[in-house]
Amino acid sequence: MKTFLYIIFITAILNVNLFSNNITYKVEHFYNFNKNVLTFAKEISCLDENNCIFLKTDNNGTGLMLEKTTDAGNSWTLIYADTSFKSSDSVYYPKYYGVACKYFSDGTIVILTDMGKIIRSDNFGVSFVEIQINNYYYQSFIMLDSENALTNSSAMENYPDSEYQILKSTDGCNNWEDFPVPDSISQRWDFGSLMLQKDHSVIIRCHVKYGLERDSTKNYFYHTDFEGSFWKYFELPKYIRDIYFFDENEGFATGRIVLPGIQDDTAIVVKTYDGGITWEFKSKTTWPTEWFSSRLVHNDSIIFVAGSLFGFHQSTDKGESWFQPEYQIPTEVFDIPYVSSIEAYFDSGIAYFLTGFNTQCLKGTRVLSSVASPSVKPKRIYPNPVTYGSDFIAEYEIATSGHLKMYLSDLSGREVCPLYSDFAESGSYSTSFRLPENISSGSYWLVSEQNGFKHVQLLNVVK
To answer: In 109-125, which positions are buried (b, 16+ CB within 10 angstroms) versus exposed (e)?
Structure first.
C-alpha cells in the first residue's frame, strides 16, 4: 500500500540566523592548492581529525588525485593519481574523473570514478588494485562499512554502453551483483540518489521511467534495507530531496522551493515525528542560502547542512532549530557565497568543509568561550499550527538550573508575547502556554533564552 506524505505548509519565509548562538569557528586552509592549476575538490574522508584522505581533480591531465594526511593537514602525501586520457577533436581529456572516496580504520581505501573504475587499497594506501564495473555511469554511491556498498548507474546518451542499474558489493567493492528489486518496482522506476540511514537502511530517490505517467509536482522515494527485504514507498512534494531518519518515527529532510518568476529560491528543512506521515517546516532561507546539497549527522543531536553559502548551517537539537555560526576568517580565505559541502565533524569541535568555484578545502575549529554553555534544549511544540486564544504545549529539557525566558517574537526578532520568565530547575518539561486572543494569525518564533543563548522554533497561529 502506498504511503502518502504531506507537509504542513507555512507561508512565511524563515531566516535561520536571526539570532546569534555564540558558536564561532576559526577558519583556515586544511589543504593549500596550487593556484596555477584549475582544481576541483571532490570529497574528504577521515578516520579521525588527524587522518584523512582528500580526492581532487585538476580537470586537465589528471582525472583524479588522492592525497593523505596523518597530521591534521599540516602535510599531505600523494598516494594515487590516474593520468590516463582520451582525445576528442585533438583535445585531450582525463579518461576518468574521481567522484567519491571512502576511508576505514582497517586500512581500506576505496575510490570510485564516473565510469565505474574502482581503485581499492587494503593497506592504508601503500598499494592499490583496480576493479571495473561494466555499463556504468556514476549516479550515487554509499558504503555501510569497509565491506558492504551500494551504487547505482544511469544511462547517458554520450556513453552508449551505460545503463540504469543498482548494484551491491559485500567484499569491499571487489565484486558486484544486481541489487534485488521487485519487478513491479523496476518496471516503473529508475533509481537516483542513495541516502544512507542511521540503521544502515537506505532511502532511494526514484524517477518515473520515460514515457510513463508522472506528477511533476512530486518527488518519489523507496525505503529498503541492504538485503532488499522490504520496500516502503514515499511520495513527497517536489522540493523535498534528502531524507534522514533517526529512528522509525523521527527524521528530517532538506530540499529547495523553486517558484517560477521569483529570483530567489528557498532552502528548507522539515521534520517528521510519525515515520513520515506528516512533516513540519523547521527553517526556510533565501539568498545566499537557496538550497542544501550536503548533510552530516553527528551523534544525532548535532546536524550540519551546507549548500549555496559559505560554510554551513548547524542544529544542536536534532533539527528543531537552526543557525549559521559566526566565522573568524583570515584574508587568504574567500568567504563570498559558494557551493559548500560539509565533509567531517569531530567532538573536539573541528569541522572540515569544501567550497566550489574558488576551490578551497577548509578547516573550522570551534572557538571556546568563557560564556556559560546553553542548557535549554527545545524538543517540540504542538499542536502546530495552533488556534489563537487556545493552548499549545512546548517540550524542552534543562540541563543546568538557571533563569529561563520564553516568548514569541515576530520573524524580525521583535518580542510580541511574553510567555515565561523565571528560575527553572534542571529536568524535562512539557509546559502548556495560552495564546492571547488578540494575537494575529501568522508565523512566529518561539524563543527559549538562557545564559545569553537563544533557541528558536517556528510556531504558526491560525484563526
So the answer is: bbbbbbbbbbbbbbebb
